[in-house]
Amino acid sequence: MKFKELIKQSYEDLKNLTINWFNVLSLTVIIFILSNIVTPLIGIPVGLLGGAYILKRREKKNK
Fold first, then answer.
1. Is the whole-model pTM more than 0.85?
2. Owning domain of residue 29
3. Which InterPro entries match (predicted)?
4. pLDDT tens for residues 7-34?
């Protein structure tokens, strides 16, 4: 999978993500950690896209 396709898939996962407490808490933690590692300018978008990708894969795995 190319990088551009990975970003596009992560964005679609973020748009289709089910809103519940676990997902909101997970995204918040991922964004907070990445923002502390790198600058917030990079950490917030990467955290949102990466978190959505991880949560969507977890959801598919549980089905």
1. no
2. 19-62
3. VraH
4. 788 788 778 877 788 888 888 888 888 8
